[in-house]
Design goal:
The chain has about 575 residues and is of the alpha/beta class. Helices cover about 65% and strands about 10% of the residues. The chain has 21 helices and ten strands. A six-stranded mixed beta sheet has the order 6-7-8-3-9-10, sandwiched between helices. Helix 3 packs antiparallel against helix 10 and helix 17 packs parallel to helix 18. The structure holds adenosine-5'-diphosphate and magnesium ion. The site of magnesium ion has 3 residues, from helix 12. It is found in: Cell inner membrane. It comes from Flexivirga oryzae. Keywords: ATP-binding, Cell inner membrane, Cell membrane, Membrane, Nucleotide-binding, Transmembrane, Transmembrane helix, Transport.
Amino acid sequence: MIGMVIGLLGHRRQVLTLCVMSALSAVLQGAALALGIPVLRESLRHDPGAAARWLLPLLAVVLFYWLTYAVAENVGSSMQPPLRGRLFDLLSDKILQLPLGWFDGTRPGQLTTLISRAGTTTQLAVSAVLTMSGALLPPLAVVVGLAVFAWPIALTVAIVAPLILLVQIATTAPTARSEAKEAMAEAEAGSRIIEFTHAQQPLRVSARADKGLRSVEKALRERHSAARQHILRTALLLKVSGLAVYLGYLAVLVVTVLLSAHSNMDAPTLVAAMAFAIWTLRPISDLPGAVLVWQSTRRSLQSIKDVLDEPTLPEPTVDDAPLPGVPLVQLSDVTFTYDGGTAAVRQVELTVPTNSMTALVGRSGSGKSTLLHLISRFWDVTDGRVLIEGVDVRNMSTATLMSKISIVPQDVYLFDDTIEANIRVGRPDASAAEFAAACRRAQVDAIVDELPDGWQTRVGAGGTLLSGGERQRVAIARALLKDAPLVLLDEAASALDAHNDAAITAALGQLRQHRTVIVVAHRLETLTDADQIVVLDDGLVAETGTPADLLARDGLFAALWHERERARGWRLTS
Ligand code: ADP
Ligand code: MG
């Protein structure tokens, strides 16, 4: 664990000083106690002079103990802030570098737990060193002292103590397992709660709110039972190890009785040795606690290390220069496989001319979102190339790539801030006129007119005050304000109300006049407006062409089109 702390967080000198000082103070504490043996013995022999002679070294040892312990504690507490600071720096730097695709599934929950515990992890690491040396070393020093005065009793302790320790280590292993299970259940419950609160809108629209709630309840039940199992197991095992300590006491008493019968040790020696031997066994019962702290700190450090060791996407030091006159986006022979799965998209060829609108269509799971994510480099392609302005996205820095792309995701996340601030994220230095124009085009004015505080209305965490369609309009305004040539838009798959539907159509129409747009299309209006339709089927490009061409071909696109028409309950007249 100490190696891990130094490896992760540096501060080698302070960490080593802490270890040396706490070990030294623990040994001195033991030595002070060991010096109590002759003091007690001489007192029982009614020889205060001899007893007093031992008091002077005892006093010196106590002073040194106090001094080293104070230094250890001081080093321990003064290195807290820098260690914590370093840990947060490392984690936040890493979060900024991790591929965007990393943040899915249970990751946000794990990360939340990890970061909220990071502060206590460094504290635990320090207290683990102190408690471990405090539990282990003083008894050792006392046993050495006992050996001088009554070696058979020292020998008994030397045999019994490791046995007790073995029992205790054997009993802590299962608690480590149940603790790990509890931690996993807790992360899972955290993720389900985050998902449930974020996905209220889609869940309700699809009338599945109770299903979402059920998965939260299930996760909470599992967490509860994991916690219960951990507590019960820990309590039981602590009782077993407590019993081992009492059996150790008994062994010391038996040996003392035997010595009184069969040796020529006097009563004061026997009494003093027995008293301190019994004392020695007591701190051993602190060891399981210390071992638990030690192990759980190690696990926390390991999970931090795991996140820090996650591979990041390599970045070039210099960007390749964009090529003039090439189509804005080109995908050539692109194949992508999520970890261990089958390919989500295969051998995709796609050319998106500058200032055009391309609609991606296909059944759920056909790879539409994956394709958008590859263009914005959430992940790197497994095979093939993604080119923007003729440059492979892998040969662009993240900053360059992000300056060329605006993303309007299916489920828009807004910051808990005002509407205005949320749109200005697109380009903080935009003028008032530019801001107003973007909002008008994206039809955000209409939303704002209805809100109590106008532009200064706060949208709530994640933007929950607005409906899904309204959030998408805010995100489109953000994209219009940002001067990026390419907009990637993942349309809401669920039906929008008529008002939002019309507003989104209008906003999209504005967007395509000024930008190159690639949209995962679910609405008939978007499909009729597109310059080019790309139909995906199980990761492969099945059809490409204009809406009219593809309808005439009467293939997969025509089938999807008619499905959607029926769902809408009306027909377009040709
Ligand atoms: P669409 O957007 O067309 O519904 P996706 O691009 O989301 O489809 O998914 C394509 C395929 O990749 C699906 O089989 C889906 O299960 C899989 N997939 C999507 N995201 C992930 C992920 N993060 N990890 C593993 N598999 C994924
Ligand atoms: Mg999708």
